[in-house]
Amino acid sequence: MIPNPWDLGSATALVQLGFRALATSSAGLAWTLGRRDHGVRVAEKLAHLRSLSDCVEVPVNADFEGGFAVGPTAVAANVAAAVATGIAGLSIEDSTGDHLEPLLDRALAVERVRAAREAIDRSGTGVLLTGRSEGFLVGRPDLADTIGRLIAYADAGAECLFAPGLRTTTDIKTVVEALAPRPVNVLVVGDSITVTELEQLGVRRVSVGGGLARAAWTGFLHAATEIAQRGTFTGLGRAASFADINGLFGPR
After folding, report:
1. Distance (Å, rounded) from C-alpha 99 to C-alpha 96?
2. Closest CA to 93 of 121, 62, 120
3. Using an 8 Å Cβ cutoff, are 157 and 182 in contact?
4. 40 with 78: CB under 8 angstroms?
5. N or C: where does the chain have the smaller number of CB atoms within 10 Å of the terminal CB?
6. Full DSSP string of the chain
7. Rounded to an integer, what distance in angstroms lies between the CA atom of residue 2 and that of residue 195?
8. What secondary structure does DSSP assign to 195-215, as a single string?
9. What are the structural domains of the chain?
10. What is the b/e burial string over 200-222, where b = at least 16 CB atoms within 10 angstroms of the residue's CB?
11. Tens place of pLDDT for every residue, the chain, 252 residues?
12. Among 81, 147, 145, 71, residue whose Cα is nearest residue 114
């Protein structure tokens, strides 16, 4: 279970709660900067990764989006910079941001994963590489294509495979079985399944993406909207105490 903090405070809190590994959230970071998801620049992402790696004593996996480049050579250069921040793992995805052609050509996507693998190997860091196929998130929910892409990414050097957006246990099981014995990461966005049930399906890693950031923003928006529109403060009354939150960050 690798929950996704969005800043140093949330990362520290998750470690205090006992989680033994973390993963970053591209959306969570973007929102803290007042931007939409995928609106973060590579230098900002690298600084974020370095700050988290320096702050916590557990492994940090980086949502490195699409490598902040299209061409394999540029992806490799950015991956080399990322692994130097102290992260334990990173993922490379195959989405384009173009709603008409939302996925990269498979051959190019494979070369990008291979370039990332070679950059990691040259670094000698042992950083774990996750290959992501985004079809189910970008309106191309083709299970056969997703599995074919993930197998190709594994052959190119990805050690963990990830298809965010899978919703049904049938699809999850199909992907896990098709990729076995390679480990599969599943993204959970709601309350329809448990860690135990995912483990029983053969899933090896679970993350929540921007889910915790969304939960935090939900509380903030509810309380702030109430104040703005009604002039009442019941949302603040439901908040965790100052002492409980302050206590997460060490003795006075």
Report:
1. 8
2. 62
3. no
4. no
5. C
6. -B---SSHHHHHHHHHTT-S-EE--HHHHHHHTT--TT---HHHHHHHHHHHHHH-SS-EEEE-TTTT-SSHHHHHHHHHHHHTTT-SEEEE--B-S-SSS-B--HHHHHHHHHHHHHHHHHHT--PEEEEE--TTTTT---HHHHHHHHHHHHHTT-SEEE-TT--SHHHHHHHHHHHTTS-EEEE--SSS--HHHHHHTT--EEE-TTHHHHHHHHHHHHHHHHHHHH---HHHHTSPPHHHHHGGG---
7. 11
8. HHHHHHTT--EEE-TTHHHHH
9. 8-213 (3.20.20.60)
10. ebbbebbbbbbbbbeeeeeeeee
11. 999 999 999 999 999 999 999 999 999 999 999 999 999 999 999 999 999 999 999 999 999 999 999 999 999 999 999 999 999 999 999 999 999 999 999 999 999 999 999 999 999 999 999 999 999 999 999 999 999 999 999 999 999 999 999 999 999 999 999 999 999 999 999 999 999 999 999 999 999 999 999 999 999 999 999 999 999 999 999 999 999 999 999 887
12. 71
CA–CA separation, 250 vs 49, rounded Å? Answer: 22
Task: Count CA within 13 A, CB hemisphere, residue 119.
Answer: 24
Euclidean distance between CA atoms 23 and 87, whole angstroms: 10
For residue 231, the one-letter residue type is: G
Q: How far out from the chain centre does Cα 123 lie?
A: 22
Tokens of 177: 């079985």
Q: Is the pTM of this model over 0.90?
A: yes
The total of other beta-carbon atoms located within 10 Å of residue 169's CB is 14
161 contacts 183 by C-beta, under 8 angstroms: yes
